Amino acid sequence: MTQPASSLPGQVGVVNVGLPLFAAAAREQGAPVISVDWRVPAGGQPAIVAALGRLYGVHSERIEAANAEAVRRLDAGIPLLAGITTVGEAAPGLDGRVLLHCGLALRYPQAPDPLRRSMQAAAVAEGWAAGPAEADELLRAGRIGLSPANAHGVVVPMATALGPGAPLYAVANEAGGTMAYAPISQGPGEVAWFGCATDASIARLVFLREVAAPVIREVLARSGPLDVLAIAAQAVAMGDDVHVRTQAATNLLIREWVPHLTEIGGGQASAFARFLAGNHLFFLTLAMAAVRSLTEWAAQVPQSSIVTGMSRNGTTFGIRLAGSGQWFITEAPEVGHALYHPGRGPGDGARDIGDSAVLELSGLGAAAAAGSPAVAQLLGGSMGAAAALTERLAAVCAGRSSRFKIPVLGNAGTPLGVDVRKVAELGTTPAVTTGILHRSAGTGQVGAGVAEAPLACFTDALADLDRRLTAMDTG
Questions:
Q1: Which of 254, 106, 241 shows the shortest CA–CA distance to 185?
Q2: What is the DSSP-derived secondary structure letter of residue 211?
Q3: Spatial separation of the C-alpha atoms in residues 108 and 114, rounded to whole Å
């Protein structure tokens, strides 16, 4: 039997996967085109592709279960500001003259200029040196020791260094039985966490120890524990990302504390109230301690691909995964998209620095950028660009926050739970909203911007997770 001749369609539609060049050529010829944004997973690197095959394949079931629990812990814990303590009390294993510092372990000569100056200021505030020059000599000689704050459950912002007498917030996550610590915010201006070692910056450290800490302790005795992230959730709805902008959160906290400050009265309470009113960054360190109490809980979940640590010291950048205490470290990045102070530019900026990147792991910072005009300013003023920053993080996250909602996105939850598999697969790393310090002059902040986490430490962590799970199966 003769088969009827086939007829060709009068019009052909095109689904183009990958290279946009082919889609453009089809459109030029009048064909309808649907483009699918597709890239070779992990840039086609054979070892990473093979590891992804196992982590999405034979290991997938246990990873998904672990990730669900890790994300639940990040989302469900209720961190409460329970009190004020000191570095010496929170880290009792430290002996003698030792400073805690941001990021991963490093030696004094390896530290960038802003962090070295902060170490000098902290040493003088502790009474170990008469001035920054003497402190520099002691630090270079190794007569003052250094230890990463992260190793003691402490998170510190920007180029912070702390001696044993420095006051800390103690934030408790009762559900997980975890406690985390962070310093009282030093505020803006000529301050040590911005890389200044001056009389003013040292005086601010002494003020926090001698005035702010006792007053806050008395406020908490009157008010009871403070639900830190309940305030942060309100602030996100009001335009904070609770990283580079904490204005709304700080104002909400002031509203909570003012009645108690007026009851306390006296010179110290008045001095602290004036300091609080002029410190729009005050809430930042509170949020960091609260989030660290949650990541510490999530970190106890084994066999998970969720990132529970992300930190930088201005020289190196490191991450760690839930279920593993190992840090994976690479070079700290420059801060890319940035808005500099007048007369300043990229040549003035130090590398990305501080423990505050932990906020991006909890649904804050870049995760909440879509609702923050302040973050939009760092990206050229476009709220669309800020929303794209949030969606960039969503692409590599395992879930959404039920706590932090963005009104302009239909009250969608912020991205939560960075999954190292997705980071490696897409080659998309978390972005971090951050301040920028002068790299060498000791003059403080020169701008703010968005830093992109380096990919290498994520792929190293992925490879380690693959080795650990494979060893469990074969051992």
A1: 254
A2: I
A3: 12
Distances (CA, A) of 405 to 249, 373, 415: 15, 15, 10
For the chain, the farthest-separated pair of C-alpha atoms sits apart, in whole angstroms, at 106
Q: Which two tokens stand for residue 67?
A: 């990730």
Rounded Cα distance between 453 and 67, Å, is 21
Q: What percent of the chain has pLDDT over 90?
A: 87
At residue 222, does pLDDT exceed 70?
yes
Residue 473, classed as helix, strand or coil, is helix
How far apart are the C-alpha atoms of 438 and 385, rounded to whole Å?
A: 26
Q: Please, is 3 exposed, middle or buried when counting C-beta atoms within 10 Å of its C-beta (0-12, 13-18, 19+)? A: exposed
* Cβ density class 415-431: b for 16+ within 10 Å, e for less: bbbbbbbbbbbebbbbb
pLDDT reported for residue 92: 87
Q: Is the pTM of this model over 0.85?
A: yes
**Quick one: average pLDDT of 142-148?**
98
From the list 370, 292, 331, the residue with the least C-alpha distance to 451 is 331
What share of the chain in percent tops pLDDT 70? 96
User: Residue 77 pLDDT > 60, yes or no?
Assistant: yes
8 Å CB contact between 42 and 420: no
Q: How far is CA 78 from CA 82, 228, 397, 433, in A?
A: 12, 8, 21, 24
Burial 83-114 (b: 16+ CB within 10 A, else e): ebbbbeebbeebeebbbbbbbbbbebeebbbb
Tell which residue, 107, 138, 102, 97, has the closest CA to residue 120.
Answer: 138
7 - beta bridge partners? none
- Quick one: which of 428, 337, 326, 440 has its CA closest to 381? 337
Q: By C-alpha distance, which of 326, 330, 402, 325 is closest to 363?
A: 402
